[in-house]
Specification:
The chain is an alpha+beta fold and about 325 residues long. The protein contains 10 helices and 11 strands.
Length: about 325
């Protein structure tokens, strides 16, 4: 057939093609690991890798409709046309499923770690507790990191945070924003990432220990630009004991706070930030998940869901035990 000759199926190609239909109720709110993977990789590619699973053979309805129309018009369908028709359909596709899903997802709760660890109270014996540093020193370290003077109203809030976070924790700023706002690459292949993150306005500052699910937070008015360190940025829900779950707060607890601005300009005071402790914890969680999916489990992993055949032992000390790795959950 001549290249310029019209194929029998060409008049039946629909004018509008929307391969990926995204309902207004479809979003990625429950896909925390996937969203965190996008943040870590500074890309939307992790989402695109799931499209074929979520929409299996999306061109099928169009092919079926075209075949029905052609047969009604007296044209016999030829399966040899399928590849050409599929290419033509994809060439006309105007759908944008990733952005549609993210628009439906809306703003998500994230935190940015300032890499400051505050020591808390320890106790080998209840009668002999000790603290690694005084409340005064802890408050000073937080004020210095945030650029807050000792005699400001915000300094009193810092003191409140320190006194209400007896186990110490990591200094973080919590906020809400669209996932796309914290990605510099989206789909591009270049390696350039943001160099600064600027918090201006109302933010939630927390001193939080996510391993124990303890800490405290207050709202602050700040205008401070920090060096951007991608590994210090995370979804709050990426942690088993997120701050809002710990305090039983509803989803709008950050309403009224301001999202940061990320830019490619380095801050004037480009001091280096330490990596968040959550980085190692997320890596460990990923490794424990990998071991479990491979059929194993890990001694000391206290997540019931990553063990098989756990049984209850009704003898002192009573508790549940994994027969494979020996992990024990005492009552």
């Amino acid at each position: 057939m001549d290249e310029k000759e019209t194929r029998p199926w060409e008049p039946y190609i629909p004018t509008y093609v929307d391969m990926y239909y995204v309902d207004y109720r479809d979003d990625l709110s429950d896909n925390t690991k996937l969203l965190q993977d996008c943040i870590d990789k500074n890309s939307l590619y992790p989402i695109s890798e799931y499209l074929d699973d979520w929409w299996e053979y999306p061109e099928a309805p169009y092919l079926e409709e075209m075949q029905n129309q052609m047969e009604r018009g007296g044209i016999e369908w030829d399966d040899d046309w399928v590849d050409e028709i599929r290419d033509a359909l994809w060439a006309k596709d105007t759908s944008d499923p990733i952005n549609d899903l993210l628009r439906n997802t809306g703003a998500i709760t994230m935190f940015y770690s300032l890499g400051v660890e505050i020591d808390g109270w320890h106790s080998a014996f209840l009668c002999n507790p000790w603290r690694g540093e005084s409340e005064e020193m802890a408050a000073y370290k937080i004020r210095r990191a945030l650029g807050i003077s000792k005699d400001s109203p915000e300094a009193k809030k810092i003191w409140t945070i320190v006194c209400n976070a007896p186990y110490g924790g990591e200094l973080r700023i919590y906020f809400e924003t669209d996932l796309r706002e914290v990605l510099s690459r989206k789909y591009e292949e270049h390696d350039q990432d943001f160099k600064s993150i600027h918090f201006k306005g109302t933010v939630a500052v927390a001193l939080y220990d996510h391993n124990q699910g303890s800490g405290y937070y207050e709202e602050f008015e700040i205008d401070r630009k920090f060096p951007f360190k991608r590994e210090n940025l995370a979804l709050s829900d990426s942690e088993k004991y997120s701050l809002e779950k710990c305090f039983g707060m509803c989803g709008d607890w950050l309403r009224g706070t301001d999202a940061p601005t990320l830019s490619f300009d380095a801050p004037k005071n480009n001091r280096k930030l330490k990596s968040s402790t959550a980085v190692q914890d997320r890596a460990r969680e990923a490794e424990l998940d990998r071991i479990f999916k491979a059929g194993g489990c890990t001694f000391g992993d206290m997540n019931y869901k990553r063990h098989r055949d756990v049984y209850y032992r009704n003898e002192i000390p009573c508790g549940s035990k994994c027969p494979h790795c020996g992990t024990f959950w005492i009552d």
